[in-house]
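Risk register update: the risk of archive-format incompatibility is retired. Evidence:
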Amino acid sequence: MKNTPRILVLLVLTLFVSSCFKKLKEEIVPSGSATLIANGTNVNLGTPTAVTLLGVVTIEANKDKSGYTILLNKADIKAGKIYDLKSSTGVFTFQHDGTFYSPSTGTLEITKFTDNKLVEGKFSFDGNAIGTSGKKMTASGTFSVNIIL
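Archived output:
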């Protein structure tokens, strides 16, 4: 009978920690939307994600073998800012049907940014396949993503 209070305290503590993890998991569910048109074809990307880590905002919208990833320095993000995808200090990767493309021309515009809450933008570019000569891509897209961390 001496162990009953200890077991009761352990049980209550376990329930409390479990409910905290459940709440945290519910709060970090990605939400938002992403569009992509690759060579005139709409591509379904599912739900995008955006996270902030070490001063970098990573926006990702990928499904199967198509999508894009954008990494931007958080200090540089401002609504209305336009990045040149060819020479930008940010990183933009694009994949369609398993092939990666590098922009030869194009822009990325941040249309809305709320620190650690929301990032919205749009992009368009013309590019060439990496490692494969002759394959070209024209793509455009948008994203509106709640930042989860």
